[in-house]
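Justification of resources, computational component.

The compute hours requested in this renewal are based largely on the per-chain cost of generating structure records like the one below. Each record pairs the submitted sequence with a full structure-token output. That output is archived, and it is also reused by downstream analysis tasks.
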Amino acid sequence: MTAPVAGASAKDGALLQVRELDKHFGAVQALYHVDLDIPSGKVTALCGDNGAGKTVLTKTIAGIYQPDHGQVLWEGHPVHIRAARDASRLGIETVYQDLALADNLDIVQNMFLGRERTRNGLLDEDSMERSAKETLASLHVTTVRSIRQPVASLSGGQRQSVAVAKAVMWNSKLVIMDEPTAALGVAQTRMVLDLIRRLRDRGLAVMVISHNLNDVFEVADRIAVMYLGRLVVQEDASTFDRQSVVEYMTTGGLSRSGGTRTQES
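The structure output for this chain reads:
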């Protein structure tokens, strides 16, 4: 197997391009010259061991952190994402591992939290219910009993589905999902993986941060691997096997055995 080259694919026409991104926290450098391409209509899995820089990169794209150096291009144009609101305006929505759902509110209230619709000074409940129902139906989320049931009563898979539906409701073009199947059972994991495929089939770009390589190889079209703050490889998923991904995650490259060559970072 020939070692893929970091930044080798999806450069032209990528929805999101990250170039030479650096990020420091005091004396600690969390990201080193990161290049990443996220194309529309594909699932890109971002893999890496704990501390590899996945979360810092994700939060920089999402506007939570500001890079110290480098550039972010959106649809080919340089952009400055200074806050989560800026990311949302572009069409970038992030579903974090804690899902940021309010247990005491129902599904509709969660999906419109902070973006409530009003009519004549009152909440337009009918409009919000219709939109929530249409979005859930379009994603084939059919297991919830009622869109007015409290989020606290939902299963893990259902909660993940609501969080994703909330993200795609706002004309999003890129959905970032942080460990979407963590702590889920087999059936709930299946539900979430099917949901990820449907987002891709709708033409959205999806970036999934995951440690679960079974899930990665089931849904990812592309795989990018980080190692100690560097993005060491990104290529089509068919280029990899599990062993090579693990090797990139743990050493930053491929061994020379078996005719492969080491990936320089």
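The chain is about 30% helix and 25% strand. Confidence is low (pLDDT under 50) at residues 1-10, 258-265.
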